[in-house]
Amino acid sequence: MKPYTKVTLATLAIGAGILIGAVYSNTATGASTTPGTADDPVVTKSYVDQQIQKALGGGGTTTPTNPTTPTSPTTPTQPSQGSDEVKNVALKPGKILIADAGAEFIVRSGNAVIYTEDSNGVADLTDGKDLLNGQAAPKNHLLSFPREGRGIQVKEGQKNGLIVMVRGGYTIK
After folding, report:
1. Percentage of the chain surpassing pLDDT 90?
2. What's the pLDDT at 13?
3. 122, 126, 156: which is closest to 139 by C-alpha?
């Protein structure tokens, strides 16, 4: 095929594409509805509530009721240690910082080791590892305690204590 024939066919193909696009350029099906009309598929909660009230024979608009005040619980509330508040805890040598279920620790200063009463460990979320009993707890790593009975303690031979950021409940033994 000769080069001018190729150029002519390419020009015709591009022109035909532009012509077809111009002729068939209409809006997408369903996009022609006006927002807020009965044809609009998206409605608000207040609109649905009004329609339900009309269907039940209750009339027009509804007014929200005032919320009731909660009654005091029959069981005692958790101490402030169990909140999502982050606390700095100083741990002296010989003491163990035991986490409640779901607590998170970050060792800020000092040398800490993991303490567990069972064979399972503590999740180091920073490195994605499981730290077992007696292993070093790295500084500035987020440690997650999924169950009670696990914690950290000062490494043996250390004279200085630990500073630990704690979120969740804990006890010091």
Report:
1. 14
2. 93
3. 126
